[in-house]
Amino acid sequence: MTYTLGLTGGIATGKSTVTHFFRQHDIPVVDADVIAREVVEPGTDGLAEIVKTFGTEILLEDGSLNRKKLGEIIFKDDDKREMLNQILHQEIHQKMMMAKEKWESERVPLIVFDIPLLYEAEYQNTFDAIMVVYVPEKTQIARLMERDELTVQQARDRIASQLPIEEKKAHADIVIDNSQTIADTYEQVQNWLIEQFETFK
Fold first, then answer.
1. pLDDT tens digits for the chain (201 residues)?
2. Are residues 119 and 130 in the same domain?
């Protein structure tokens, strides 16, 4: 029986540190961000559906998606943003489930689904457990300012576009505190693996 783990966090909480650990241990990671890019490549049903909804003006000359143009359209219109989200959600979900079936057929003990907006997209009941990579909001703001060279207000605005990290933490089955060292974070993940799967000892 394959165990499915939904992995999420907030902006700059260090989720990629945890996915790196899983990959180092040859645990398959299904990355929702990668899938989100794949489902709108030229020739895909996702891109065809977006063109049908928004028109050919959102295409570049080579037939690929003009992300900037599409961004301008949905930024000004909540209804259109919701229409886009519905198209993408359906396509992303389908590809994630295909990946799940593939790994299950290979009888792997664990599949990790890396989904930044897991709670926002209401995936919390899709997996056996949800792991949240957590840092306090103060640390989140400081890391985001340093990483993306933002002002305090810009960092706060970006963080405010997602569900608060404290709320994600409250709903999590497993919380990985990433506010200390990478070694400390790795140890927490390792301990969970040992507890859940004795073979990882």
1. 899 999 999 999 999 999 999 999 999 999 999 999 999 999 999 999 999 999 999 999 999 999 989 988 887 788 888 899 889 988 999 999 999 999 999 999 999 999 998 998 899 999 999 999 999 999 999 999 999 999 999 999 889 878 999 999 999 999 999 999 999 999 999 999 999 987 665
2. yes
* Whole-number Å distance between alpha carbons of 67 and 135: 31
Name residue 174's beta-bridge partners.
131
Q: Please tell me whether residues 19 and 113 are part of one structural domain.
A: yes
Binding residue per annotation — 10? no
Full residue range of the structural domain in which residue 60 is found: 34-107
Same domain (yes/no): 142, 99: no
On whether the CB atoms of residues 6 and 127 are closer than 8 A, the answer is: yes
Is 199 annotated in some ligand binding site? no
**Does the annotation flag 16 for ligand binding?**
yes
**14 known ligand binder:** yes
The CATH number of residue 182's host domain is 3.40.50.300
13 labeled binding residue: yes
Specify the number of domains making up the chain.
2
The CA-based angle 197-199-200, given to 5 degrees, is: 80
Rounded CA-CA distance 151/149 in Å is: 7
**Do 68 and 143 share a domain, yes or no?**
no
CA nearest neighbour of 15 among 109, 115, 111, 93: 115
Q: Is 19 annotated as a binding residue?
A: no
Give the tokens for residue 69.
């143009």
